[in-house]
Amino acid sequence: MARSGRRPGRTGTRDRILVSARAAFGESGFEGATVRGIARAAGVDPALVHHYFGSKEQLFVASIELPFDPQHLAALLVRGGLDGLGERMMRFAVSIWGQPRSLQVLLGIARSATSDPRAAEALRGILESSLLPAIRELGVDQPELRASLIWSQVVGLVFGRFVVGVTPLTAAAPEQLVAAVAPILQLTLTAPMP
Amino acid sequence: MARSGRRPGRTGTRDRILVSARAAFGESGFEGATVRGIARAAGVDPALVHHYFGSKEQLFVASIELPFDPQHLAALLVRGGLDGLGERMMRFAVSIWGQPRSLQVLLGIARSATSDPRAAEALRGILESSLLPAIRELGVDQPELRASLIWSQVVGLVFGRFVVGVTPLTAAAPEQLVAAVAPILQLTLTAPMP
DNA sequence: GGTCTAATTCAACGTCCGATGAATTCTACA
DNA sequence: TGTAGAATTCATCGGACGTTGAATTAGACC
Fold first, then answer.
1. Nearest CB to A156: which of B124, B159, B176?
2. Phi, psi of A166 (to 5 degrees)
3. Which homologous superfamily is B13-63 in?
4. What is the CA B24 to C1' C6 distance in angstroms?
């Protein structure tokens, strides 16, 4: 039984709450995760969560900060031109979901997007602030449609691999996925579009 | 205030509950939808839901019966061979999500898959009982990986169009989507795979 | 007409949830 | 050393949820 009152020394409590929150939201989405569960995982009283973050929603917002800078991504994609862009995109996706913390953020957003418009907007934001500008800058025709199709392919991959657990997708090595999907993305960039 | 007791005449109450349930699950997923809300939408006391279906979970199972027969779909895809298979797949997907009831069932499963392993299994089932057998039967190499990639593309499309609301995907006419995506699916079927 | 069964509502229980406000303990700084 | 403020817990509130059991009303069949 932890007695009440301030703890001696520096306790990174706020950070521990954030870490637990990312794990919980990534596992169960916004609605499925509970403030009490997050507090328990952080070894802390639920009231502390509100003390630091005000509300469950604000905690969510704080915990799903995008694990990369959209402009940086856009620049990275543009650099190198249209050639090999599909592969660069896949490599970036794979490198992001290879980091546990980034993956948690991504899954937290994706799992919450099914019920929370804000999370859905965050997902759209990745498309509109990175993918679309990059493709526009390269002067491809029908940039909106192409960017959306690429976005939906990557989202589908993440969904299949990490949410639904489709065996060939969970079993494939990252390199194999890159090799398999990159040409498809490349065709999505270059094929004639209606 | 509806007084208690049996209603005169034939009241399709059970069916009305099912209809409301599909709408609610499609809109909010299993956890987000509430028995009380479904009952309210059906103009009925919440206890009736349990009288007819036993539990929220059994109601969910009853309401998400797949809107098509997997074997029939597999046969439809095989008939006609590898040529134009991508287009047939897209046409089928578009025709399914064009029917409101089917779309509700699909979205109910997809939205619940983020937290409910059973729904995730139902989603995998579409892949394993229709897509994969069809592709296998056509003698393509790497059928598991190809089927999974096609599945993830279609799931991503549904997610983008109906859950996240990606503008180019919501705005595109079904025919335009078929024309844009079919060649990509076809490449996924025929491109060399690692 | 009497009786059994199905349909329907009502009232309630127990649980979990997010949130609040007060009390307690420590740190920082004058 | 005294005191303001930050960190932490505790007890609790009000609400929503799934579920249950009893009571009420209608149809079906003898």
1. B159
2. -75, 120
3. Homeodomain-like (1.10.10.60)
4. 27
Distance CA B36, CA B39 (A): 5
* Residues of chain A neighbouring B179 (CB-CB closer than 8 A): 194
- State pLDDT tens for residues A131-158: 999 999 999 999 999 999 999 999 999 9
**How far is A51 from A35, CA to CA, in rounded Å?**
12
Tell me the nearest-neighbour CA distance from A5 into chain B, angstroms: 37
Q: What's the CA B41/C1' D24 distance, rounded, in angstroms?
A: 23
DSSP tally for chain B: helices H, then strands E: 12, 0
Tell me how far the alpha carbon of residue A11 is from its chain's centroid: 28
Is CATH 1.10.1370.40 the right assignment for the domain spanning B70-190? no
* Minimum CA–CA partner of B147 in chain A: A168
Quickly give B191 CA vs D20 C1' distance in Å: 59
User: Please, are residues A123 and A110 in contact by the beta-carbon 8 Å criterion?
Assistant: yes
* Structure-model confidence comparison of residues B6 and A110, the more confident one: A110
Predicted confidence (pLDDT) per residue in A35-60, tens digit:
999 999 999 999 999 999 999 999 99
Contact B170, B97 (CB under 8 A): no
Q: Concatenated DSSP letters for B68-94? A: S-HHHHHHHHHTT-STTHHHHHHHHHH
Q: How far is A153 from chain B (nearest CA, A)?
A: 5
Domain boundaries, chain B: 13-63, 70-190
> In angstroms, what separates the C-alpha of A130 from chain B's closest C-alpha?
14
Instruction: Please state the separation of Cα A35 from the chain's center in Å.
Output: 21
CB-based contact A110 B114, cutoff 8 Å: yes
Per-residue tokens: A86: 């599909």
